[in-house]
Amino acid sequence: xxxxxxxxxxxxxxxxxxxxxxxxxxxxxxxxxxxxxxxxxxxxxxxxxxxxxxxxxxxxxxxxxxxxxxxxxxxxxxxxxxxxxxxxxxxxxxxxxxxxxxxxxxxxxxxxxxxxxxxxxxxxxxxxxxxxxxxxxxxxxxxxxxxxxxxxxxxxxxxxxxxxxxxxxxxxxxxxxxxxxxxxxxxxxxxxxxxxxxxxxxxxxxxxxxxxxxxxxxxxxxxxxxxxxxxxxxxxxxxxxxxxxxxxxxxxxxxxxxxxxxxxxxxxxxxxxxxxxxxxxxxxxxxxxxxxxxxxxxxxxxxxxxxxxxxxxxxxxxxxxxxxxxxxxxxxxxxxxxxxxxxxxxxxxxxxxxxxxxxxxxxxxxxxxxxxxxxxxxxxxxxxxxxxxxxxxxxxxxxxxxxxxxxxxxxxxxxxxxxxxxxxxxxxxxxxxxxxxxxxxxxxxxxxxxxxxxxxxxxxxxxxxxx
Length: 467
Description:
The chain has helices at about 1-25, 345-350; strands at about 25-40, 45, 60-75, 75-90, 110-115, 125-130, 170-180, 180-190, 200-210, 220-225, 230, 235, 250-260, 265-280, 285-300, 310-320, 330, 355-370, 370-385, 395, 405-410, 415-430, 435-445, 455-465. By secondary structure, it is mostly beta strands. The longest helix is centred in the first third of the chain and has 22 residues, at about 1-25. About 30% of the residues are buried.
């Protein structure tokens, strides 16, 4: 009898801390359900891997669900796990290998990290595991596979990869908080196809952030580098192991943003890329030097009157290549998007990478009621560096994502890509539920040939719940 009592007592003692740990777990999440209708054919797209017939418009219902668990174990130790499921309604895909349709019930690990505050030194915090990384305007770091696509084996299929909510990196981050200074140092593993050869994609960098004492201002300077097994020209993987120090992309930059007065915000960012990259598309000179730059400027004015109207302006310049043909020189002047998370327009984001482009955007919003917001934007897009007769490309193919199988007829000597109009309306049904309708229309420019001059559109409507 005493032996049974001892066993029962031991079980009770072991169960007490486990029960206490459960009490410290917070559960949250969100559910996003939407209907999507799109036609990006421009009137005459051919599927490169299909039967050559024009691609019809498409429509589907999309479900995106995330559930998050936050565990505070001690004063300075915490952990976060978040699961994600993104799928189309009625999808019959059965395996991750089905990249056209994906796995209907695939649940993936979106976040999984440990945070240690005051680690060995009071201002130092360490975060280890799968976590979101985003710096500044996300020109360099924000999405591990950019917001044009997502790895089908991880979360979703290619069809709606640009709409994916997944933004997490497998990484370690160290933060030194010397308020008003904050210094972040990161290392992330983007891709590890094989553990026995150097064919991986790694990211590392330092971001120093200074919070002004006035004007709601912030200034940051950064350095990021990436060991990259992608061919920057074509965004294809270079299968052979590149020589030492010939697959490194590096970038330095700075950004500042402040409110000169209460109604206005101004921002400016500039960055320069250098290093070397493998360019498999250029057989005569596979290793090429990088010399590229980016400039972004923005302004927003808030009228502070009835209906809270706002007006914004944005200008972006991302350098292009002087010559991207097989006889090009030994330098790459085209900007490498790296791990950006930006979008000047929903359709433009699908069709064009964040490279070799200049864009001007004007946007505005208004609130006719406290629970309703209406907004719209107009974006003008042009190649930063036009193609030449020597390039002689008969068609253009988006570099990433589901639509990379599309081919568009183009005019080589023209640089005007087109214009895009985006609009949205949101209704806050409750504090936790929001209804949203968005529309985007892309009007092709003279870069596209006459058989590809129809307007493309994307219309989405849905409901979002946060809990």
